[in-house]
């Protein structure tokens, strides 16, 4: 019944700047508290959780994953979807490994890997933003295309590499417990936070999700923005793929599957932090660290694959549920 | 006018079928042999059942990304029930019931609770995969399969038709009755076009959306039952190969016939299966199949998109028939 009644603009929508009450504050910052509590729990049960080596490893994997999900965060924030990001990363990973194996240097190979990301970003952008075709089906198809090419490059198996070149050096560089790459990714996220919060670009992203037609009417070049976002998603996914080639010292054609659920979970769960259901970069970063820490802690505690899968799936469901609850409470009009 | 259009579309479909047949038969004459056509029909049965289920969800303008995971769970449930010595009908019913239950959860979450369909079904699909690891911690199950009679589902025949194909035809007939010859069918389409006005017209939209998701998950489980029967083992990744072909079949069919329907989905499945079977016969490695399917899918969506086909017609006004 609710969708019949709520579509009528009976109540005044979106009261401007409510005074923050306790419940809202809890929702805004509750996620950070949850992360701290869970991590404290792991530390209590398995003190090796905060051993420097373990922290370093977690930060390294978090940096790569966070890089991969950066474009996805904003795409979901605009109300669109991209389910090809993990396959693009896998393709870039395989292409880099393939080039290195074929005798090109790591520099050229990395550029080649990035190139595949640009290519697939442009393809998605042209089809979804340019031709306005349905984003989900198109990115399912381009993702399958990328995954299939990735598998074809290695004839169905992985490519193992003897050296890891400058990518390996970059990943190995560290400042104490902090990997250098984590600093770079952190700076990138800080920059994106600035773009998202202080520039009109960021405001348009959230405006697009609320009312696409109104944003178009206001003269915002919506299609150009979407185009840029899909290219961005392709590029950062490919960058993550290149880094993974160095990190795993191999090309793994099927690495995408494990990042798929994590990416969406990170974005939606992260959306709960700070912005009450709107995907945002700081939320994604926190959620990535949370998910990697959870996976790591679960491994230390000896959980089975099944249990970890169920926890991930449940977290995504909880994320989706919270987003919807938060939105319906904040907005009087249900969006459809 | 509508009749003319249907004839034109049927003609285009027949032309595509003939073109694909000729191209592959020229490369390898075994393509049109009886053995290969039977193999093609078996392949089509598995893909077609999953695509038929998805058709209902697409008709009500929703998406379901959980059916591959749910199908894997159905396969493992089926395998486990057979392995512990349950009779065949209990095992098959158990697998289907598991799918049905997940479909209900999806439907209720989307239609009643108003959760966004894409991410919700991704999450429930992830959950289903998690549960599918429970039975054997991820290893494939094949105990008792020979004794149970499950393999007969693949091998036996009814009135000259292979059992899987007979099941597909039977299911398609029922789906056709439901979607194209009953009040419910009109309700499904009305719900997809405008849920609010459909509701005011007295269509039980919530029930129909829940039913669509339940049908999708149940048919995916049925399709995986046939796959398990033909491969002789149940494993946790069984459903992964359903996702792309099912979406491709529904969208290809909808593109050819103007809207998603049972007939359109079957046509789409036939075209996909003909191509995949042909490429297999030409010994093209398996990992290219997704590339082929996705290229066809993107092309179909792009060419048949109303604005793009209109633009194409403006470019070549006289060649409208040639497409």
Describe the structure.
- The complex is a heterodimer of chains A (336) and B (323).
- With 336 residues, chain A is mainly alpha-helical.
- Chain A has helices spanning 2-6, 22-45, 52-77, 85-101, 106-130, 135-153, 165-172, 180-198, 200-210, 212-217, 222-248, 256-272, 281-301, 305-330; strands at residues 159-160, 174-175, 178-179, 250-251.
- Chain A has 14 helices and four strands.
- Chain A starts with a helix and ends in a 6-residue tail after the last helix.
- Chain B is 75% helix and 1% strand.
- In chain B, α3 (67-83) runs parallel beside α5 (117-132) and α8 (163-180) crosses α9 (183-193).
- The radius of gyration of chain B is 20 Å and the shape is globular.
- Mean pLDDT of chain B is 86; it is low at 318-323.
- At the A-B interface, α1, α6, α12 and α14 of A face α5, α10, α12 and α14 of B.
Keywords:
heterodimer; A: two-stranded antiparallel sheet; two-stranded antiparallel ribbon; 2% strand; disordered N terminus; disordered C terminus; B: mainly alpha; ABC transporter involved in vitamin B12 uptake, BtuC; 15 helices; 75% helix; globular
Task: Summarize this entry quickly.
The complex is a heterodimer of chains A (336) and B (323). Chain A is mostly helical and 336 residues long.
What secondary-structure arrangement, pairings included, does this model have?
The complex is a heterodimer of chains A (336) and B (323).
Chain A: H1 2-6, H2 22-45, H3 52-77, H4 85-101, H5 106-130, H6 135-153, E1 159-160, H7 165-172, E2 174-175, E3 178-179, H8 180-198, H9 200-210, H10 212-217, H11 222-248, E4 250-251, H12 256-272, H13 281-301, H14 305-330
Chain B: H1 2-27, H2 34-59, H3 67-83, H4 88-112, H5 117-132, H6 145-148, H7 152-155, E1 157-158, E2 161-162, H8 163-180, H9 183-193, H10 195-200, H11 205-231, H12 243-257, H13 262-281, H14 289-304, H15 306-315
Antiparallel strand pairs in B: 1-2
Helix pairs in contact in B: 1-13, 2-8, 2-11, 2-12, 2-13, 3-4, 3-5, 3-11, 4-5, 4-11, 8-9, 9-11, 12-13, 12-14
């Amino acid at each position: 019944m609710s969708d019949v009644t709520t579509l009528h603009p009976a109540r005044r929508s979106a009261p401007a700047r409510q005074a923050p009450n306790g419940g809202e504050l809890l929702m805004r910052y509750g996620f950070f508290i949850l992360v701290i509590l869970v991590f404290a729990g792991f530390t209590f049960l398995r003190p090796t959780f905060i051993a420097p080596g373990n922290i370093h490893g977690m930060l390294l994997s978090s940096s790569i994953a966070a890089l991969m999900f950066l474009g996805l965060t904003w795409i979901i924030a605009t109300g669109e979807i991209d389910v090809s990001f993990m396959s693009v990363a896998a393709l870039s990973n395989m292409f880099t490994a393939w080039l290195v194996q074929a005798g090109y240097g790591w520099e050229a190979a990395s550029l080649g890997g990035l190139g595949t990301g640009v290519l697939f970003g442009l393809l998605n952008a042209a089809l979804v933003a340019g031709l306005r075709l349905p984003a989900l089906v198109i990115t399912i198809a381009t993702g399958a295309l990328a995954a299939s090419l990735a598998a074809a490059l290695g004839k169905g198996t992985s490519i193992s590499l003897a050296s890891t070149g400058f990518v390996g050096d970059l990943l190995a560089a560290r400042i104490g417990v902090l990997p250098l790459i984590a600093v770079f990714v952190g700076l990138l996220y800080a920059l994106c936070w600035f773009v998202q919060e202080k520039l009109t670009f960021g405001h348009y992203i959230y405006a697009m999700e609320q009312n696409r037609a109104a944003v178009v009417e206001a003269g915002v070049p919506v299609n150009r923005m979407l185009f840029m976002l899909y290219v961005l998603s392709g590029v950062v996914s490919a960058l993550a793929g290149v880094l993974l080639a160095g990190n795993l010292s191999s090309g793994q054609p099927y690495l995408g599957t494990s990042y798929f659920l994590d990416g969406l979970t990170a974005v939606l769960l992260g959306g709960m932090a700070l912005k009450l259901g709107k995907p945002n970069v700081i939320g994604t970063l926190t959620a990535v660290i949370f998910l990697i820490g959870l996976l790591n802690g679960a491994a230390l505690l000896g959980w089975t694959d099944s249990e970890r899968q169920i926890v991930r799936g449940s977290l995504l469901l909880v994320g989706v549920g919270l987003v919807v609850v938060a939105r319906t409470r904040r907005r009087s009009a249900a969006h459809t | 006018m509508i009749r003319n259009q249907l004839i034109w579309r049927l003609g285009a479909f027949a032309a595509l079928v003939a073109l694909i047949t000729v191209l592959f038969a020229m490369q390898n004459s075994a393509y049109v042999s009886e053995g290969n056509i039977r193999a093609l029909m078996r392949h089509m049965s598995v893909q077609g059942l999953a695509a038929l289920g998805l058709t209902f969800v697409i008709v009500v303008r929703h998406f379901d990304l959980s059916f591959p995971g749910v199908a894997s769970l159905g396969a493992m449930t089926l395998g486990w029930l057979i392995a512990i010595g349950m009779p065949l009908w209990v095992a098959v019913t158990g697998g289907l019931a598991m799918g049905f239950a997940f479909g209900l959860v999806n439907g209720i979450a989307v239609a009643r609770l108003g959760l966004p369909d894409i991410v919700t079904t991704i999450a429930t699909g992830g959950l289903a995969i998690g549960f599918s690891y429970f039975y054997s911690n991820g290893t494939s199950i094949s105990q008792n399969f020979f004794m149970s009679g499950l393999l007969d589902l693949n091998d036996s025949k009814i009135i000259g038709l292979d059992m899987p194909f007979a099941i597909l035809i039977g299911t398609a007939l029922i789906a056709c009755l439901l979607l194209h010859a009953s009040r419910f069918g009109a309700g499904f389409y009305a719900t997809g076009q405008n849920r609010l006005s459909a509701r005011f017209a007295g269509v039980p939209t919530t029930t129909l959306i829940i039913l669509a998701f339940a049908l999708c998950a149940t048919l995916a489980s049925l399709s995986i039952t046939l796959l398990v029967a033909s491969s002789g083992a149940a494993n946790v990744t069984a459903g992964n190969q359903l996702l792309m072909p099912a979406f491709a079949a529904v969208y290809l069919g909808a593109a050819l016939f103007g809207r998603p329907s049972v007939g359109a989905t079957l046509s789409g499945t036939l075209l996909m299966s003909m191509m995949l079977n042909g490429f297999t016969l030409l010994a093209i490695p398996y990992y290219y199949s997704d590339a082929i399917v996705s290229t066809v899918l993107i092309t179909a969506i792009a060419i048949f998109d109303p604005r793009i086909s209109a633009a194409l017609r403006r470019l070549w006004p006289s060649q409208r028939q040639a497409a």
